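Q: Mind making up any chain with C-alpha cells?
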Amino acid sequence: MAEAHQAVGFRPSLTSDGAEVELSAPVLQEIYLSGLRSWKRHLSRFWNDFLTGVFPASPLSWLFLFSAIQLAWFLQLDPSLGLMEKIKELLPDWGGQHHRLRGVLAAALFASCLWGALIFTLHVALRLLLSYHGWLLEPHGAMSSPTKTWLALVRIFSGRKTMLFSYQRSLPRQPVPSVQDTVRKYLESVRPILSDEDFDWTSVLAQEFLRLQASLLQWYLQLKSWWASNYVSDWWEEFVYLRSRHSLMVNSNYYMMDFLYVTPTPVQAARAGNAVHALLLYRHRLNRQEILPTLLMGMRPLCSAQYEKIFNTTRIPGIHKDYIRHLRDSRHVAVFHRGRFFRVGTHSQSGLLSPRALEQQFQRILDDPSPACPQEEHLAALTAAPRDVWAQVRSSLKVQAEDALEAVEGAAFFVSLDSEPAGLTREDPAASLDAYARALLAGRGHDRWFDKSFTLIVFSNGKLGLSVEHSWADCPISGHMWEFTLATECFQLGYSADGHCKGHPDPSLPQPQRLYWHLPEKIHLSISLALRGAKTLSGNIDCHVFPFSHFGKSFIKRCHLSSDSFVQMALQLAHFRDRGQFCLTYESTMTRLFLEGRTETVRSCTREACNFVRAMEDKEKTEPQRRALFRLAMEKHQSLLKAAMSGQGVDRHLFALYIVSQFLHLRSPFLDQVHSEQWQLATSQIPVQQIHLFDVHNYPDYVSSGGGFGPADDHGYGVSYIFMGDDTITFHISSKKSSTKTDSHRLGQHIEDALLDVASLFQEGQRPKPRCGGLQEEDLGHRCGSLPCHTRGSRAPTKSTNF
C-alpha cells in the first residue's frame, strides 16, 4: 500500500555498510550474503519446520514404510534388492545376540533413505506443478482440460493436513524476466504519458542500455535467482524500506479500520481486552501453524513467509540503515495512555489472560490519575522523526532508559488507548470518517510507536483501528490478521449485556507496570523538534473516506466484468477529470505465487485506458463505442495484472537491475530515468480473504471497511478501496494539503461520478440508483449507533481458549 512512496523515495547511492556515498561491496559478495540470509531463515525452526519439510508426507508415513519393510523381511522377502544386507555389513558387529538389532537398524536406515527419496520426488513434482501459470491466463469461469488435470495433480500431491508453511519448500522461485521483454513493456507503459520527443529520447536510452549493460546486469540477477530464495525481495526490503531516511509516519505506514457502521461495545477497556485477546489467539495459532495457507482462487498456494514477523517485531533505527528485530516470544504488550507508558503482562501461570482480565488491566490504566513525566508525553514523536535523527537519540535513550525502551520494543505489539472518540457520527458523517482515517494514519504525532510492527488503537468510544509499519510485510498479511481479530472479538468472544467482556475479573493480578523514562536534557530538544515535525506532517495530510453504495461487486459480476479492472478504469477517468492529464499509475499486486515473493507494480495507465477515457469525454462517441473501448482497456489491465502476478512484471526487474548497476558502478542513464519517475496516482485494493468469518448477507454492516495510506508524491494521490459485501465499495483517498494540484474530496466526487458513468454503459444509459446504505442521512439513524455484539442472535459466542 504505502510502498509506492518508498519506491519513489529510495536512493540506492548507499553502501552495504552505509558509510560510503555509493555502493561499493562486490556484487558477488552481496549475492552470497543474500543466499546466506535465506538459508538462515530456513534453519530457524525445528519441529514445525520438520513437519513442513516432509510435507506432503508425514512422520506416520515413515512408520508405515518401516513396518512394511519389516513385514516383508519377516516373510523372507527383500524389497531392498540386497541393499539392507550391504547396510548390515557396514554396521558394527556387536556379537551374535545383537544380530536382530542390526537387522532392525538396517531396515530403519533403508526406510529412511527410501522415505527421503520419495519426499524429494514429491517436492520436485509439486514445485514443477506449482510453476504452471496457464490457469491465470484463462477466462474467468472457464477451465481448460490441461488446467483441470493440473488441479487434480496438485490436490493429489498436496496431501490432506496442510499447515501454514507446508508449501514453502515446494514453491517455485520467482523467475527473472527477459530483459528485452521488460524494456519493451516499460516503453509501452510510458508511451501514453510522454510527448513524442520525450518518448523518442527514452527509446534511445533504452536501446543503449540493452546494447551496453543489460546482459551483464541480467547475468548477475540470474545468478542470484539460482542461489537465493528470491532475486529481488531482500533488496526490496533493504533499499526501499530499511534504507529510507524519511519519517515512517505517513510515508511507510498504513492503517486498517474497524467496522464502519457498528461498534460492538462502547466500553473502551472491554474492546481493548477482547481485541488483545483475539490478537494473541491469532499469534498462538500462528506459532502452531494452525492458520491454513492462503490458496489463490481456492487452488494455488501463496507464500507464507511474511507471517513470521507479525508479532514481537520492531524496526530499529540505525545510521544509514534500519534493521528488523524479531523475538521468538513476548508475554506482554506496551500500552500508551495520556502520555504515560505501561507494561501489561498477557499471560499468567495458567496461560493467556482471559478477555475480562485484560479488560481489568486496561481499566486500571484508564483510572490511573498519575500525570506524565516531563517530555514523556511526547517521547513517541521520536519514532516519527527522520530515521538518522531517531537513531542518534535512541543510542542515548538506550543508556538512560534501557528497561523502559526494552519493554516497548520487546512487546508483542503496541496498544494506544486514545482519549478521544472516533468513527462515523450522525452529526457529520463525512468529516467524522475523514478524521477517523487521519487519526489512524498519523494520530497526534506522539501517541503511536511507529517502529512496532503494528499499533492497536482503541478510542474512547470503543472504536478500533490499526497502524501498521510496512517493511516487515505487505497489507494482505496484516489484513488477514485483522479480519480474524474483528470476527473473533465480536462473534466468538462477545460481550455481556452491559458491554463488558464475558467472564470475571481477577483481583489477584498485579497492577500494570508503569514505565519510567529518565530523559537527559539533551533529549528534550530532540523530542520537541520531532513533535513539531510530526505535527507538520500529520497536519498536511488530507484524508477522505467514503463508502460508495450505488452498486458493488455483485453488479460488476453480473456484467461479466472484473471488479478490480472496473474500478481501475474508473480511477483513470476520475483522475483525468481531476487533473486534465494522464499520469503514471501504481497499482500494487502480489507475487506470493513464488517463494518469498512480495509485490509487483501494475502500470494501469495504458494506451487502451487512455483511449477509453478520451472516448468518455468525447460527446461524439456512442455508448457502443465507449463500451468496446472499455472492454479493450479492461482486457489489457487483466493481462498486465496476470503477467505481474506470474513474475513477468516491469518494475521489480528494473529495480533489481538498478541495484546491481550500483554495486558494479555502471551508470545507466536509462535506469536513472526509470527510477526518477513520480507516481502521481498510487492505488491498491484491500482483499477480503476470510469471508467465511462474516455473515455479509444477514449482517452486512459487520464487515471491515478496509484502510488507507499516504500519497506517493507531494502532488499526487493515494487511493485504496475494498469491496464491502456485494453492494458497497469503500474508498480511502489521501493527498497533501500543501499541494495546489490535489484535493482528496474533489477526487472522491470524481470517482463517484466516474463509477456511475462507467456503470451506465451497461445499464442502457441509465445511472444506477443508490441502494439503501452508504451515508444517506435517513439511513444513519440506526447505522451510527453503538450496537453490542451480543444482540446478534444467529452467532452464539464461544468460550475463549487459554494456553
The chain has 26 helices and 20 strands. The longest helix spans residues 99-130. The first strand starts at residue 253 and ends at 257.
